TrEMBL record:
It is an enzyme of class 2 (transferase). This is D-inositol-3-phosphate glycosyltransferase. PANTHER family: BLL3647 PROTEIN, GLYCOSYLTRANSFERASE. The keyword Transferase applies. GO terms for molecular function: D-inositol-3-phosphate glycosyltransferase activity. Its EC number is 2.4.1.250. Coiled coil: none annotated. The gene is mshA_7. Residues 20-179 form the Glycosyltransferase subfamily 4-like N-terminal domain. Residues 202-343 form the Glycosyl transferase family domain.
Amino acid sequence: MNILLSIHHELDGSTGAPGVTVKLAEALAQRGHRVTTVSFDNIGWARGKLRAILFPWFLFGHVLAHPEYDVLDLSSGDGWVVNLARRLTGWRRHQLTLTRSHGLEHMGHDLFVESCKDGHTAMSWKYPIYGGGYRLWECRRSFKLADVSLVLNEAEREYAETRFGVDAAHIEKIGNGIDECFARVARHLIAGTSATAGPVNVAFAGRAVFWKGFTYLTEAMTNVLTRYPHVNLGLFGTGSTEAEVLAAFPEAVRARITVVPRYDNKELPALLGGYQVFAFPSLTEGFGMAPLEAMACGLVPVISDIPGPREYMRDGVNGIVVPPRDANALEMAIAGVIDDRERWLALRRGALATAVNYSWTDLAARFELLYCQRRQRRMPVRA
């Protein structure tokens, strides 16, 4: 098949939605498909919000110039112009169009508004114009008009059906995957001997921001580090300098905290090599790649009970699930596995068994099957 993928970011294989796009494109190409990716890099002459506003129109022009595509797999908000044209004119019936969620923006918006009301963050005067206005309209229209609405979790499925009015028959759910470097580590650890004894160290991967639960992480880990003098904390991909991150912790524990502001995703297995527990108190995730990558590296995840990670997490089987925004629950869960090594070992085995099933190679086969099945149905363009 000839497949077009779009993403409303600059391409970067080590970050979030752009990384998912890069890895899916590579995995599909390895299966023999011709894959083209269109991103903000293709309109580098535009900047900021102008680039974001123009991108759906640029993408429409690209699709007009390339009738050879069989599948248009377009990131949320990108494809509304393409699909509106199809609805109005009936053209390109042979092309299957999908709108892909990388974390449903409307759900993030609802959480943001709630957090503003609670005083945890503030809304700028600009936000309702684009981010909380026009952008949400674009995303809703993209999901409403595509042949297939592709979501990451059950909460997104319900939202698309009940809030967007998308027919359930047009919704598909497929999660994300892990790089082959992580899958190799997981297979090696499964085939090897049991984990060696040693101190239990805690890691976190994500930006040091409120939305990743960093406020709750600092409170919980300050107490853990104070209670257990042998425990260390690693903070990876914080996006902030070491000094800025360490300032959130008491001076007495800072010497046992390692901060890595940025890393290439392929470096993460080595960075996590000395850690056994992965704390992830995020408030919102479409899928949540970081816990799954940590699980592949032999870490036991302690995560917030939010959509996304719930797709692969089973409390007490392959990790521990705690209520969101609850620093005390996070602290108690981490302390529990530090104090009970046998429990940690059992959860570790469950985590490895889960992670090894999420390689991009396997997921590319699922997407290939989805594309083929949906094209064969020759579904009409929706109004």
